[in-house]
Structures are given as C-alpha cells and as structure tokens.
Amino acid sequence: MEPTASASASDPHPAAPDAFSFEKRAGGIEEYRLDANGLQVLFMPEAAAPVACFMLTYRVGSRHERTGLTGATHMLEHLMFKGTEHFNARDGTSIFHTLQRVGARVNASTWFDRTNYYELLPKEHLPKAVEIEADRMRGLLLRPEDVERERTVILNEHDQGQNDPFRNLYHAVWAAAFTAHAYHHPTIGWRPDVEAASPEDLRGFYDRFYWPPNATATIIGDVEREEALGLVAEHFGSIDRGPGSQANGHATNGHAPGKAEPTREPEQRGERRVEVRQQGQLGALLVAYKGPPGLTEDADALAVLARILASGKGSRCYRRLTDRGLTAEVVAMSPRLHDPGLFSLFAFLAPEKTHDEVEMALEEVIQNVKEEGVAEDEVARAKRQLKAQEAFGRDGPFAIAAQLNEALAAGDWTLYAQFMDRIEQVTPADVQRVARQYLNREKRTVGTYVPV
C-alpha cells in the first residue's frame, strides 16, 4: 500500500492513505473507513510510552439475542479464543500463548450493546495483534468439543454468580422492568439456554454479526498513522462486507450485519415489584426507573443527578439515609445504553433497618428534588466529580480505547469527545426536569433482597 503524505496533528482533514476514506476528527481521535468492506477505524497517537492498544469492538451484545439463545454473545466471546486454522492450541500457536509471550495484556468483554477484544502490548508487536483479530473475525473454528468445554466454564461462572444475592437482585429487577426488550435477560444468558446452545446456533449468530461493517478497529499508542492504517488494510482488506451488503460486486442474501434490532419495550403503566430471598446477612433495596437512550441530553442530566443523589458524604442520600443509620451505602447507577435503560438507586440496608424505612426515605429524597430542585453548588460539585472520573478514565491507551468502546456501544464514538462539554451544559433546571420526567412511581421497578 502506498500511503499519501501524512498531515499534522492539527490538520482537521488528514490525508487518508490509499484504501481508506477519512471521515472526521474529534477529541484527538481520527475516524477512517476501509473502502473495501466498510470497517470503521479509529486512530489516536499517544507517545507517552512505547506501547499500543488494539481493540476490535463489534456492535453486538445480549440485546441482539433471540429468545432461546440468550448468552450467545458471551459464549462466542469465550470461543473466539479457542482459535482458527492459523492460531490454535493444537499447533502450539494459541491466541493467548502467541500474544502473552510477547508481553501482551489480552482479554475481551461482553455487555448489552457490544463485544470487544483487545490487546495492550509493546508497539513493535502490534502487527501480530492486528493479524489475529482479522483472522478470527471470519476464521473461527467453532468446533463442537470447544463448545462443550466452554459451556462447562460458563455454567460454572453462572453458578458462582448465583451465590451473590446482590447480583441476583440486579438481574431480577432488569428482568421485571423489561418485558419485551432484550435488556430483560442478563448478558451471561439464562442457564437453560446456555445448556442447550448448539455449535450450529452459535455459528449462525457468528455469521450474522462478525463482519467488518459491524465492527470498529481502534488503535491508540506510540504508532504512526500510516503504519497503523497500513496494518488494518493489510489484514482486514480482503474480508467481505458480509451478508446483505454489496460484496464482490453483487448483492448477497440475508440480513445486513448488525441490523437485527430488538423489540421495542412498551410503555410501563404501573409499578412492578420483585423479591429475592437468599442466604445472607443484610438486606438491600434496588429502585429502578425507565430512562432515556445514552446519546440524549437527558442522559447527561441524569448522570449529574446520580452524583447529586449518591456520591460522597455531601450527596443527598448519604445525608438522609447513611448518615442517619438507615443504610450502609447508597449507589446511583445511570448506564448510557443504546436503547432506553434504567436509572437505579441501590441501597444496602444497615442492621435492623427495614426495606420500608429505606424506601420511604429514598422517595422523600427524590420528591424533594422534583419539587424543590437542586442548588447550583450541587450541580457544580457533580460536574467536578464526573469530569475527574472521566479524566482518570483516560489515562493511557487502553483506558481511552475502553471509553471509546462504551461510546460506540451507545451509538456514536464522538460521545467520548463531547462528554466534558455536554456535562458542562447541564443546568439545575435540567436536573429537576429529568427527575420529574423519569423518576415516577408508575414507571419504576422495585426489588428487595431479603436475607434468609
């Protein structure tokens, strides 16, 4: 590949090497598109240390799974390490062995909206990481014996999780809050589905979603632009676009990669309640409200509200509940998902306190925000906390790639670049408005953990 002359870091339109189209730049990140198959590529030079991070994010998660095949995304994540014809344990070239012997940190993760695979390694070994990810994008063996081995591993993981009552309460609330949308089931899947998934089922899932147009390759580190993009073109350029797209000059049959959308959740018209009874010491309460998609401005305001309600000794829930001995801790969760998710308050009860006491106190805190609003200094404090957390989360190539990964999952990587400015725009009126709009009893799900 003959690259064109590179542009300076301040050039808003760097020259794209052959085989790529430049899309845009934001927050120091450059976006390119591999012309041959539509693979999205994000590049950021980071020369603080002689390392590089390569992360391949697929826009497929548990929300894309059909009933009866829950957990398929997570099972595939495990199986992607079992190898291809070129990289496998049989020949002594397993993916883990090949990468770890050159000092790589290698792993993967799955959630509702995405799956990622990553390598953080000395920059001179970046070509091997890119080669492996390109090879297993379409070359996964998916042998029946590998499926059975990983099924056992995942079922053990599932059973270990069943010992955690708080995890079970979390899953129970999400399952009750969503009756139609696939956020209903946990990412690990329901146990009967994991037990029944066949190699053919998993192959069909893999063949639907693991294609270049449904993936983003992120390269961050001490690497030159031409070198990074050249590696992507060399190893990914020969892969087809996949089913449902214009591949090799003709239309293919089937669905376009990543186009399977889950059923929309119908409007909730009444409070829902679930209870988990399990061995333990202290109870817990989880109150969850239907929220907006992660890319909306309302999600920004809810992120600020979460900090005001439950972050540190100055937060409202600490002063009203923890400081008065009702709870050991209250945690606010406002994940930014692709589709409308849940804004949640997780309260861990203090000894000899009841769920009713804690629920009434939480409702009192929320009603006060809805009726009286929040103060300027509360919003300013929450913004400082969010910005500090974001800055800490951008320390190094892997941290940056991980944050880009979550923005991609929400639907747009530029959320990473815009986040600080978006949070800065949130006003006290915005916080009160979203509290009134989303934190309503008739659209909430309440879960209680009762120790037995």
Labels describing this entry:
disordered N terminus, alpha+beta, 2 domains, seven-stranded mixed sheet, Cytochrome Bc1 Complex, Chain A, domain 1, about 450 residues, five-stranded mixed sheet
Brief overview, please?
The chain is of the alpha+beta class and 452 residues long. 39% of the residues lie in helices and 20% in strands. The strands form 3 sheets. Strands 1-2-3-7-4-6-5 form a 7-stranded mixed beta sheet, sandwiched between helices. It has a 5-stranded mixed beta sheet with strand order 10-14-11-13-12, with helices on both faces. A two-stranded antiparallel sheet has the order 8-9.
In spatial order, strands of the major sheet run 1-2-3-7-4-6-5
State the CATH class of the largest domain.
Alpha Beta
- Helix amount, in percent? 25-40%
Mean pLDDT metric: 93
